[in-house]
Amino acid sequence: MKPNTSRKTRPRPGFALERFVPYRLSVLTNIISRTFGRLYGERFGLGIPEWRVMAVLGRFAPLAANDVCSRTAMDKVRVSRAVEKLRRAGLVEHAVDARDRRRSRLRLSAAGHRMHDAIVPMGLAAEALLLDGLTAAERRTLDKLLDKLTARAMAIAPAALDPSGPDPGDT
Amino acid sequence: MKPNTSRKTRPRPGFALERFVPYRLSVLTNIISRTFGRLYGERFGLGIPEWRVMAVLGRFAPLAANDVCSRTAMDKVRVSRAVEKLRRAGLVEHAVDARDRRRSRLRLSAAGHRMHDAIVPMGLAAEALLLDGLTAAERRTLDKLLDKLTARAMAIAPAALDPSGPDPGDT
DNA sequence: GGTATTTGGTTTCATTTGAAACTATTATTC
DNA sequence: GAATAATAGTTTCAAATGAAACCAAATACC
Questions:
Q1: Which CATH fold would you assign to the domain A21-156?
Q2: b or e along A34-72 (b: 16 or more beta carbons within 10 Å of the residue's beta carbon)?
Q3: Residue B101: pLDDT above 70?
Q4: Partners of residue A128 in chain B, C-beta under 8 Å
Q5: What is the pLDDT, as a whole number, of residue B3?
Q6: Where are the domains of chain B?
Q7: pLDDT tens-digit series, residues B110-154
Q8: Which CATH architecture has domain B20-156?
Q9: Strand D contacts (CB < 7 A) among B residues 49-88?
């Protein structure tokens, strides 16, 4: 089965990582995440988790941390830490829900709103730049593909992976 | 449980994170990475970095760590650590290039080849499952989109982010 | 009422990660 | 042919991450 043990780097017929969709998605996403993360980080001192929290609070407020979790697709630990950072930076205000004192009521502060409104156009511009070379049809397909693939991936995932899952570790 | 968009939570016109392409890509990729990572991890005790190294070594061998970096789009630290794990597991053999004694010559061991050949069909099956609901046209567009967007993202990235960059820290 | 269970959120701990520093070898320059 | 720069790869250190433990408040159950 191996008559040709050559000295040089022989490309074997087998498996082509560079065509493997999960790999390619990962590479693409990592490049984008680093680029955008640096964008937010350099000019605003925010990481991606913080930016996501600000994004949803800028649109829906007030929210409980829990709602932020579902809307940002981040787990509660990340949300908790991001909120804490934003609070210390004076960008987010935290209050306790009067009806259910476990729940928090999070909203952007005035400074938070100003920063939010400054970041959003930047993000949208960067997104536009990214999508620049795509035809209108390709954009539509991209949109559809993202929805389809995400739904599909969530269906495939062994359910324990679902971040909105029932906190299986908690006693 | 009804979605808590009742009284106070007013959706404002502003920015819709849930439509933002970088965000959606990140969510999709995270789900897939965790699913695949768990797949490899549970049955073979490998993480994604290790699996990637095995994948390229299964196809091109021998490679220097450097070549693995470029082919897997991982930085040298990750590659170094993944190779070390694989060596300890007896899946990868490490030799020194005679012509340039800094360079390594990495290849799969016999056991590594067996594991590689066992994993590949599993990965391909999972990929097929993921792409299951897509039409042939959508698949073609996906393929094109991944290439286009990756090229675009690399072009946009401030160059310092390029993982194949000139090791700016190393003085 | 009182106890058990669930839920919202934080903290702890071990692992992963990457930037920068470091070692060893080769290439360059004078 | 030293001195210097560049390259391959490893190690160190600090930050990010997530699973599980944890605390506090609210519900369910009796």
A1: Arc Repressor Mutant, subunit A (1.10.10)
A2: bbbbebbeeebebebbbbbbbbbbbbbbbbbbebbbbbb
A3: yes
A4: none
A5: 42
A6: 20-156
A7: 999 999 999 999 999 999 999 998 999 999 999 999 999 999 999
A8: Orthogonal Bundle (1.10)
A9: 64-66, 76-77, 79-81, 83-84
| ipTM of the complex, rounded to two decimals | 0.87
Look at residue A39 in the predicted model and tell me its pLDDT: 87
The residue of B2, B25, B120, B147 whose CB has the most chain A CBs within 10 angstroms, and thus the best one to mutate to test that interface, is: B25
Look at the block and give the residue holding tokens 């056991």.
B111
Q: Extract the residue ranges of chain A whose pLDDT is less than 50.
A: 1-8, 159-171
Say what percent of chain A tops pLDDT 90.
77
Q: How distant is C1' of C26 from CA of B171, in Å?
A: 17
Considering only residues 58-97 of chain A, list those whose CB is below 7 Å from strand D. 74-75, 77-78, 81
Q: Among all protein residues, pick the one whose CA is nearest to the C1' atom of C20.
A: B169
